[in-house]
Structures are given as structure tokens and as C-alpha cells.
Design a protein that fits this description.
InterPro entries: CRAL-TRIO_dom (IPR001251), CRAL-TRIO_dom_sf (IPR036865), CRAL/TRIO_N_dom (IPR011074), CRAL/TRIO_N_dom_sf (IPR036273), PITP/CRAL-TRIO (IPR052432). This protein is α/β, with parallel strands linked by helices and about 475 residues long. About 50% of the residues lie in helices and about 5% in strands.
């Protein structure tokens, strides 16, 4: 199984000085939104926003509420500017010398009021806002508290490096801190309020059965989409067998939940230095009866708007000639960066340019003698989800680690010398490792078990075995014990 020899550019391990400075700026702005910035200087200034706005392409968050005077409104219209109002860039009140302590920093996180009270001033570029992130950003700041947005962010981190998560937004927005912040906050709102990702993950398969969500379950039992193995770069592979799809088999909500379920499960399969996935659309025997634009649009939105920098490569395999007109429509929806990751393949040899022949499943002409088969859950496998006392204890432990990480982040941002910064970075890396380990202690209390848990791909301690059936054939159980 081949894996990359080194980390890709723009990752925590490979940042240039300029990129690290951008990351510090985004952390400063994010901590302001979360109400956890303490005495950090705002990273995104009103001046920068105003300068960008002079071109008429962007809307800065105003440092004062807009005047309701009609003449002011008229003048604003002439300048093609629209004040967001109330989203202040203000310095927190001075604190005592011990305010930098971990305990005081967290008790200061606002749990009431809106995040607009702590947010920095940013520029919202309406000319480059395909998914309405600016509108969602404003709505998030107006309707959610700093504590809620902070909780949504740390919930998304899971077992990831927190720097790595923020860097996804920076890379997706070409290192523009304003745009990265807007995208990140909009994503937190989408996860917490629109999709309720945590609930989808917790519900899992047993929950779907209890709710009689037949549309969701049909995706699993048919094997319409499944995760199996890795490509040449060590990226987890998601196979989608398009011929099995019929729009009438499920409603959009069920399919969207299944998409989120799959993407969140795939995230748990990423192991450094791999941080993207491979998607294979198997178009064998495709007909127009299988075409359904709504889930395609939703998947594109997920990758482009809310799971940035998560797609490594997409292979469209054995697309018939009739797909060409459909592709011309779909391509028009794609960001050029995403479109560049899509490749068309016809034969197993074409696939072998991306996936080792030994790891291409047999139904696609490879040597991997494996067929998807859904394994039903056992009635009690999600019992831990009901243990709220155990979860509360682990959440309290994680909160302390998060507080320590935020504390070190503030110190790192304010560090004047390289030696001091490097020392703090080393400490932060250690805390990041604690967060990763701590997540796996919590996982069974947060996430419904999946077919990948039952088949030995995902281990309870965070271990992963992409080909557990090979160990069985060799006389070894997925947990490493001999038969």
C-alpha cells in the first residue's frame, strides 16, 4: 500500500513563514469570533476591509451600526455598499495580569449575546461568493453565541489537528484570511443549524432503523456507495455505483444524511500525511434513469463549501457517450480547482494509474477479490450512546485540553522571537496529540457504529485496517490476534 513520502505544501508540517503568519491571523480572528481572544490584537482590520471595498466588490463589516437616515442609505446605495451593521471590531476590555491563565480565559467565553459582539471586521466579497457564505456568516454571528460557534468548531475538529482544519479553509480561499474566516464560520452554522451533523453521526445505522428511514438504509443495503481500500497516494476510496440509483427510492433528506454519514466516516479514515479522499463513480450500465441532479449538486456543495480541500481525486469510470451532455452541465457547476481533480477512465489499466491493480476491486477489473456486503448491526452495539454520565466526564476532560490549546495558541500568536514561537509550537503539537487521543476515548459515546466498525476497518482506539479481510485470510483477526 503506497503512501506519500512527505506532507503536501500548506500543511502544519510544511508551512512557510508567510503561511504561518496567515494561520496566526486566522486563529486570531477565529478566537475573536469564539469569544476566546482575550487581549489579542484583531488580525483582520477595518482598514484592510475598506481598501478592498473601494473596488466595489466587497462588503466590510462595519465598526458602527448603519445610520437609518434616508440620505445615508441613498449614499451607500450609490457606492454599491451595504453595511452589515453591528458586527464590531472591538478590543476586549483590559484584564488583570492573570487573565491569560487557562481558567480565566475560558470562563470569559460569552455564552449569551451574539457572536457579533466579539467578531472582527472582515471583508465579504459578494463577487466571489458562490454559496452565499457572506449571508450565512452574518446570520451565524447574529443568531449564535460565541460559545456555540466555538463548540461547533471543536466538534468538527474531532481527531484532526486544529491547525490542519483551519488551513483547509485558508488553502481553499487562496490564503485570504477574510474569506477563510467567512467560509469557516458559515460552515460551523451549516453543521450545527442546517444539517445537524452531530445528530446524523450519532444516529448512525441503528438510529436510522429506529426512525424507519428506509431511504438512508437502502444506500447501505444496496451498496450504492461504500468505502473500501486506498489509492496509490494512500487516500481512502469511496466507490459510488451509479447504476443502483433511482431518484424515487429515497427523498433528498435521506440522501443528504447518507452523504454526510459517508463523508464524516471517511474523515475518520484519514491518517497523516494523507488528508484527502479518492472518489470513484462507477458508471457501468448507466442509463438516464439513474441520473439525479439534486444529490450531485449537494455533493459538490459539500466538497466546495463545507469540506474544503477534502477531495484528492475523482475518477469517473466507464461513462457512456450519453453522459457527455450531462457532464457539460455538471462541469459548469464546478469550481475550476475541483474540476481539475476529475479524471475519466475507461479500463482497469486507466484506473491503475491512480489505484494499484492489486487494490482495484474485481468488479472493476482489478485483482482485489472483495465484494461489498452489508453487515447488520447488533441491537446493543450503540449502548454507549446512552451513557450520558461517561460522555459528560470525557467532555469536561476534553474542554480542559481545548482550553490549554487555545491558551498556547494565544501565546504562539504573540511570540516575538522564532525560538520562543518554536518552543510553543512544540507544546501545541503535544496538546493536539492529546486532543486526537481524547477524541477516540469519546467516539463511542458520540458516534453510532457503522458497517466499517463491524467489519474491522475502524477500531475503537482509532486504529484503522483498510484490508481487514486480508488479515483474516492470513490467519489473523482484524484485532491482530491469531485464529
Amino acid at each position: 500500500m503506497a503512501t506519500p513520502a512527505a506532507f503536501a505544501p500548506g500543511r502544519p508540517e510544511t508551512l512557510t513563514k508567510e503561511q504561518e503568519a496567515k494561520l496566526k491571523e486566522l486563529w486570531t480572528a477565529s478566537l475573536q469570533v469564539f469569544g476566546a481572544a482575550d487581549d489579542l490584537v484583531p488580525a483582520v482590520t477595518v482598514g484592510a476591509a475598506a481598501a478592498a471595498d473601494e473596488a466595489g466588490s466587497a462588503t466590510p463589516v462595519a465598526s458602527e451600526p448603519p445610520s437609518e437616515d434616508a440620505s445615508t442609505t441613498s449614499e451607500a446605495a450609490k457606492k454599491k455598499k451595504k453595511s452589515l451593521g453591528g458586527l464590531l471590531s472591538r478590543k476586549p476590555a483590559k484584564k488583570d495580569a492573570d487573565a491569560e491563565s487557562i481558567a480565566s480565559s475560558v470562563s470569559a467565553v460569552p455564552t449569551t449575546g451574539s457572536a457579533a459582539d466579539t467578531a472582527p471586521a472582515v471583508t465579504i466579497d459578494h463577487a466571489d461568493d458562490k454559496y452565499g457564505h457572506g449571508k450565512e456568516f452574518r446570520a451565524a454571528l447574529a443568531s449564535q453565541t460565541p460559545a456555540e460557534l466555538r463548540a461547533a468548531f471543536w466538534s468538527m475538529v474531532k481527531c484532526d489537528n486544529p491547525d490542519g482544519l483551519l488551513l483547509r479553509f485558508l488553502r481553499a480561499r487562496k490564503w485570504d484570511v477574510d474569506k477563510a474566516l467567512v467560509m469557516m464560520v458559515a460552515t460551523m452554522k451549516w453543521r450545527a443549524k442546517e444539517m445537524d451533523v452531530a445528530a446524523v453521526v450519532k444516529r448512525g445505522e441503528i438510529g436510522a432503523m429506529a426512525e424507519k428511514d428506509e431511504g438512508f438504509l437502502k444506500q447501505l443495503t444496496l451498496g450504492k456507495s461504500f468505502l473500501h481500500g486506498v489509492d496509490k497516494e494512500g487516500r481512502p476510496i469511496c466507490y459510488i455505483r451509479v447504476r443502483l440509483h433511482r431518484a424515487a427510492d429515497q427523498d433528498e433528506a435521506s440522501l443528504e444524511k447518507f452523504t454526510i454519514y459517508t463523508m464524516e466516516t471517511a474523515r475518520l479514515m484519514l491518517r497523516k500525511p494523507v488528508d484527502t479522499a479518492c472518489v470513484v463513480f462507477d458508471m457501468t450500465d448507466f442509463t438516464l434513469a439513474n441520473m439525479d441532479y439534486a444529490p450531485v449538486k449537494f455533493m459538490i456543495k459539500c466538497f466546495e463549501a463545507h469540506y474544503p480541500e477534502s477531495l484528492g481525486v475523482c475518477l469517473i469510470h466507464k461513462a457512456p457517450w450519453l453522459f457527455s451532455s450531462i457532464w457539460s452541465i455538471i462541469k459548469g457547476w464546478l469550481d475550476p480547482v475541483v474540476a481539475a481533480k476529475i479524471n475519466f477512465t475507461k479500463t482497469s489499466d486507466d484506473l491503475a494509474k491512480f489505484i494499484p491493480k492489486s487494490q482495484i476491486i474485481k468488479e472493476l477489473g482489478g485483482d482485489e477479490d472483495w465484494t461489498y456486503a452489508y453487515v447488520e448491526p447488533s441491537p446493543e452495539e450503540d449502548a454507549a450512546l446512552k451513557d450520558t454520565a461517561a460522555l459528560e466526564k470525557l467532555e469536561q476532560e476534553r474542554e480542559k485540553i481545548v482550553e490549554e490549546y487555545e491558551h498556547l495558541t494565544r501565546m504562539w500568536i504573540k511570540a516575538k522571537e522564532d525560538a520562543e514561537s518554536d518552543k510553543i509550537k512544540e507544546e501545541r503539537n503535544g496538546i493536539s496529540a492529546k486532543l486526537e487521543k481524547g477524541y477516540w476515548n469519546m467516539d463511542k459515546y458520540l458516534r453510532g457504529r457503522t458497517v466499517y466498525d463491524r467489519t474491522g476497518v475502524l477500531k475503537e482506539d482509532g486504529g484503522i485496517e483498510f484490508y481487514p479481510e486480508r488479515k483474516k485470510e492470513a490467519g489473523t483477526q482484524p484485532n491482530g490476534e491469531k485464529n
